[in-house]
Design brief:
Structural class: mainly alpha
Number of domains: 2
Helix content: 55-70%
Number of strands: 5
Radius of gyration: 25 Å
């Protein structure tokens, strides 16, 4: 029988929001390096080679409220909507009841769920792609075009859907010239607009694709496959395996809608080989684990085919998989927020918010971004693009907040803002000769002065003084000093 159409959508939305509310309230620390960089740069919309959709949302949300919880609730809403999009798309291929059950596995997945509570781009891209395919299969072309545009302006992976939908639409118009043109305008407008605006895939000094691939890049598939399996509960994997058998045996992959989704996922998998953004310790073999978002979607969709055939056994596996997913999610977020530097940054932000009063300000002296990482990036740019690209890369770095990561984490969780919470560890700050004026100085235990400004601040505010408070987490600590006023690096403390 199943739930009524309006009720199943609302139920999924509510379940998705409740699960994310639990995570946000239970673990208020924002985890992830990219998420902090994005939040620390909310005064910008364009960040290096990254596409602007999510950053634009964060930018305008910050104009309403700089509270990090606002951004997290926004991400929670997107994550919950992604579950609805999955359900609506799956319902094109299977009955609504198994589609609903598969969507429950989607909203409780221990990878998709936690990463959709912090400002990562992937969940917005995935939600928009799901709705784009749903609207396309429903014949709502304008809505499909808009959703695909949002996806394509969020992550480059979504661009793989453009040729799929262009070809599908052009075929439906029997390859008439007008049909082809309309298809390109409907489903290719976002990449076209972006490349015209940027003068290519990305601004000078950055890179997205790398044609010089090596056989070692095939190991990226092994890595992403492991991430997918690791973050899919065993009962869900069993459902997916049965679903895969059903799809192959009954040749369901030949159905138009299934073929479109399969073609998109295939193009995405191929594109992984050409990604220029590999990850440490070996950029040839590894890419960001978050690329597994689309693979996990594919696995969960196969689970829906399994649920459509397995009856009560499928429902039992679904129930166990749902509970397993929630339990694993809690463990994931607990581990992701347990690092001493994350704990200490959050506690420091809370302390400064409660202590720094009125027009007072504070300086955070923390370990900078390792110069070797910056130099490795600049060396790679110079190797690929020469002196002109190197100059562009330096300009891009100066335009961004490159202050120490622990300062950025403190800034993101604090309500003081950049005008009252200062750092002089970034590339631009170190070269600017900016003056400092603060009544409080927080010094991380792993800090060492990286430029003359920091050396002078440390000498004036910290040397031979006793801290008013010391915060500790694991092997790290932050000593907080009531310094008097530091008028500038070149003057004496009052």
């Amino acid at each position: 029988m199943g739930l009524r159409p309006r009720h199943d959508v609302l139920a999924l939305l509510l379940i998705g929001l409740v699960l994310r509310a639990w995570l946000i309230l239970r673990w208020p620390i924002i985890f992830g390096g990219d998420t902090i960089l994005r939040m620390a740069n909310r005064d910008h919309i364009l960040l290096s080679y990254q596409l602007p959709a999510l950053q634009a949302c964060l930018h305008y949300l910050a104009a309403v409220s700089a509270d990090p919880l606002v951004a997290r609730w926004f991400m929670a809403l997107i994550g919950a909507l992604a579950g609805v999009g999955f359900f609506l798309l799956a319902a094109h291929f299977i009955d609504r009841t198994p589609a609903f059950l598969a969507a429950l596995l989607f909203v409780s997945n221990p990878f998709l769920l936690p990463l959709s509570t912090v400002p990562y781009q992937e969940i917005l891209m995935l939600a928009a792609v799901l709705f784009a395919f749903h609207f396309f299969l429903s014949g709502q072309l304008a809505a499909a075009s808009l959703c695909l545009g949002v996806a394509c302006l969020t992550r480059y992976e979504a661009w793989a859907a453009c040729p799929v939908l262009v070809i599908a639409f052009a075929r439906s118009r029997k390859w008439a010239a007008a049909g082809i043109l309309k298809a390109v305008l409907l489903f290719g407008w976002a990449p076209i607009v972006w490349m015209i605006y940027r003068g290519g895939l990305a601004p000078g000094g950055t890179y997205v694709l790398d044609s010089g691939i090596s056989p070692k890049r095939l190991l990226r598939y092994v890595y992403l496959g492991w991430i997918t399996v690791k973050n899919t509960p065993i009962p869900v994997l069993l459902l997916s395996l049965s679903g895969a058998v059903i799809v192959v045996r009954e040749r369901l992959w030949k159905r138009a809608g299934v073929a479109l989704v399969a073609a998109f996922l295939l193009l995405f998998v191929i594109s992984i080989l050409f990604s220029a953004h590999g990850e440490s310790p070996d950029p040839e073999r590894f890419v960001t684990a978050r690329e597994a978002h689309l693979l996990i979607f594919g696995v969960l969709l196969l689970a829906g085919f399994g649920l459509a055939r397995l009856g009560r056994a499928g429902v039992l596996l679904c129930a166990v998989g749902f509970g397993w997913g929630i339990y694993s999610t809690g463990r994931y977020v607990s581990a992701a927020t347990a690092a001493p530097n994350l704990q200490l940054s959050y506690r420091l932000a809370r302390y400064l918010d409660s202590t720094v009063q009125g027009n007072q300000s504070a300086i955070v002296l923390a370990e900078p971004i390792p110069p070797s990482l910056v130099q490795a990036y600049l060396d790679k740019v110079a190797q690929k693009g020469g002196a002109a690209a190197l100059a562009d890369a330096r300009r891009v770095l100066r335009s961004m907040d490159t202050s120490p990561p622990d300062y950025q984490r403190t800034l993101v969780h604090s309500h003081l803002g950049k005008q009252r919470l200062l750092s002089f560890g970034g590339i631009a700050a170190a070269e600017s000769g900016s003056d400092a004026r603060a009544q409080w100085v927080a010094v991380w235990s792993n800090f060492a002065p990286a430029n003359p400004i920091e050396e002078r601040i440390y000498e004036l505010a910290v040397k031979d003084r006793s801290p008013v408070e010391v915060l500790r987490a694991g092997p790290l600590s932050v000593s907080i000093y009531r310094s008097g006023i530091i008028d500038s690096p070149g003057t004496s403390a009052l």
